[in-house]
């Protein structure tokens, strides 16, 4: 799985959702990087545009945020950060096992405690990635803007059956209330007219 995510990070064409939802952003914002798409420059351009809030399309924002969130789990999924921090990873985090963001957390701890111990390029890229992680978390946690997005979130939710049961219960309660109260008011009006 990590190998697939690495290949997707290096070539955006291997990520069909990113390619479809961010087509116009890639052509407008990342046109200069399209020739170097084998080296992850298009994905890096989209991440930078996301950080600078240049991406307007909500679906593209969600895809880029997901791409950034995947890199949070394992540094090997982000080849540009991994390349920039290879020396520091070998020097300071070689005994830390991979996965679950442990190597990235090691670098973050070093950045927080002793920022000058990290290589300049690694420090700058790591600071940008941390900022991207915060923006991605905020974007992925945003509430839906309209009814269509709400429906999409409910359909994609693992608790969609719960939502369906609640919706049906409320509808049934309204129906039963209407039956009983409707009959009571109709009876009172019938007695009044006699």
TrEMBL record:
Gene Ontology MF annotations? fibroblast growth factor binding
Annotated membrane topology is:
Single-pass type I membrane protein
The cellular location(s) given in this protein's UniProt record come to: Membrane
**One short Pfam family name for this protein?**
Cys_rich_FGFR
Give the InterPro entries listed for this entry: Cys-rich_GLG1_repeat, Cys-rich_GLG1_repeat_euk, GLG1
According to the UniProt record, one GO cellular component term is:
Golgi membrane
- Supply the PROSITE patterns for this chain: GLG1_C_RICH
UniProt repeat feature Cys-rich GLG, residue ranges: 55-115
Which keywords has UniProt assigned to this entry?
A: Glycoprotein, Membrane, Repeat, Signal, Transmembrane, Transmembrane helix
Membrane spanning stretches:
162-182
PANTHER family recorded: GOLGI APPARATUS PROTEIN 1, SELECTIN LIGAND RELATED
Which protein, by its recorded name, is this? GL12780
Q: Which organism is it from?
A: Drosophila persimilis
> Which gene is transcribed and translated to give this protein?
Dper\GL12780
